[in-house]
Amino acid sequence: MTRIRGWLANPWGRPRFLVLITWGYIAWSIVPVLIAIQFAFNSSRSRTIWSGFSMRWFTWDPSDSVKNDPDLRHALGQSFKLAGADVLIAVPIGVLLALGLARWRGRGAGTSNFIMLFPLVTPEIVMGVSLLLVFTHIFTFIHTGTFAQVLGHITFSISYVVVIVRGRLFSIGRQYEEAAADLGASPAVALYRVLLPLLTPAIVAGAAITFAISIDDFVISQWLSSGGGTVTVPMLIYDATRAAPLPSINAIATIMVLVTLLTVLVGFLAYRYFTRGERAAGGGMVGDMAAFDI
Predict the structure, then answer these.
(1) What is the chain's alpha carbon radius of gyration, rounded to the nearest angstrom?
(2) What angle do CA 269, 271, 274 make, to 5 degrees?
(3) CA nearest neighbour of 162 among 217, 206, 226, 216
(4) Do residues 124 and 219 touch, judged by C-beta distance below 8 A?
């Protein structure tokens, strides 16, 4: 008994239950998703009884499949439209803002950094309501709909890009820019030929995260929508679960999961590709992640 008590109480020994806790958490998180994905391939309309494998709800059902249901197709297109516009606008702005905040040392720099991080700590429901009030009472020329949804997505996405790019900036330091200046490069040339290539891994990672967050967003899209023409996939899933959803809802949710996972995978592979030289030299992800402590 004493030996068992000592074995359990040893704080410096090998973690006894870490593997069990880790795999338990993974199972708790993933198994429900896998079950939902499974019934996307069910041959019958049931979402609880398995009747056999089928692609019915993706392609060949004449009215209720993702391919043949106009509401599902439009929601999928709207989600991709918002996510694509968010990436194209938020990433360049976030990169420029990160450069400015990282190099700014004057009065107001601390306040600006806090304001930049504010969307990360603000509850999304608060941001959605606030944006709706701004568009309906202050900037009344902006009407709810796709344009307002894009602005809302950009508002909360920029902070993610800024944090990632700033982490990369702090990781690489200023020595490369200074070396370029010593060799006669102007600030613009140093930015374009030296700094931006070094920031490419962070820019790619920021774009991947922005796309994944935007395409799955529900709250901002819901508050800034203007009816059926601006319904996204998360909004459609929410509305469907309040009634009697068909397995086609599982099918479109499966497509969203696969797109999100593929986006994150592409971003990760791109990051590894652009930092392969640093990892070979002993740098890489460890240095970048340490720089996130801001």
Answers:
(1) 24
(2) 110
(3) 206
(4) yes
Report the distance separating Cα 62 and Cα 246, nearest Å. 14
Q: Domain segments of the chain: what residues?
A: 68-290
As its CATH architecture, domain 68-290 has: Orthogonal Bundle (1.10)
Residue 104 backbone zone (phi > 0: left; psi -120 to 50: alpha; other: beta): beta
Does residue 276 register a pLDDT over 80?
no
End-to-end CA distance of the chain: 47
Q: Cα separation of 183 and 275, whole Å?
A: 25
Q: Is the pLDDT of residue 91 over 90?
A: yes
Which single residue is written with the structure tokens 């996939």?
Answer: 233
| CB neighbour list of residue 5: distance below 8 Å, 6 or more residues apart | none
What is the model's pLDDT at position 284? 44
The encoded tokens of residue 196 equal 């931006």
d(CA 23, CA 43) in angstroms, rounded, equals: 31
3-state secondary structure of 150: helix
